[in-house]
Specification:
about 325 residues; Gfo/Idh/MocA_Oxidoreductases; alpha/beta; globular; NAD(P)-bd_dom_sf; ten-stranded mixed β-sheet; Gfo/Idh/MocA family oxidoreductase; GFO_IDH_MocA-like_dom
Length: about 325
Amino acid sequence: MSRLKVIQIGVGGFGQSWLTILRDFNEIQLVAVVDVDENNILDAKKLLKDESIEFFQNHLEAFEQVEADIAIIITPPQTHKRLALDALRAGLYVFMEKPITHTFEEATELYNEAKKYEKFIMISQNYRWRPEISAIKDCIQQGIIGTVEYGEWNFRRATKFGGWRDQYSEILIEDMSIHHFDLLRHILGKDATSIYSKSMKPSWSWFGGNGVASAIIKFDETLINYFGSWVTRGKETSWNGEVRLVGSKGIIELIDDVPLLTYEDGKTQELELPKMPYTDREFSIFEMVQAIKENRKPITHLEDNLKSFAIVGGALQSIKHGEEVTIVGSKSIEAIN
């Protein structure tokens, strides 16, 4: 198969870093760039320096005028549903940054509409594709520490983004925690069954909404205590966070991105990191390409990622109503009476 042709939609901020990844990825060809902001287009032209790439401010014009295989959407979540459906209608595969959409309701609407089309939608959950995460998952799935009965996941960073993120009411849960919730599903091999969550906005916060949140999440019988802050003070964690998963035969910890295994007798060893063809976001696009070539759904296709996004939806409902909620598959979230 020849190189797959890609149209990237959204090249401001984070989109600029995606441009460099796509430009340098051997198995794809970047054929067009779209952004509503003319300044972003000018920046992209300077970065790419490639006269064969076409530039547009209207994605529909790009779809009509440029032959392509994949639309890669790196725009605010509020635009994802419309852009994804337009791409599907144009006969394109869709690759989107997380979260799926701004709300869980929109995500389920997109899922139902997307079923009408032959091509799939993939969500980039790049945190899955890091060697330290793969090492932990492999250890858990091999049963080396037995059944994981409880765990802790702590995330602490102080990050000033500006722009649309500052307007979210629950920015930590809505934009960051999806990574950690998805990693829990990925590592444990289970879907969440219930969540109880609280959030707050510290007096010094630069976000418009709540930048601190905690949650108690059940994955069947496994209990996870989650805490996150995007306005922390003092020592920060990595973007993965600090993780402790405790099983019947030992514990796995991830501290400063170093995975450690401790057995019942106290003997500790650092987990060996697997060799991967690509990591992080490069692996996400690699998985997209491989799925198309092999005529299969990618690992983080829309239906699967709804199960991670359902944890976000459950957390938001729990915060709003002050109740524990049960998460039923990827289709519904209901309050526990």
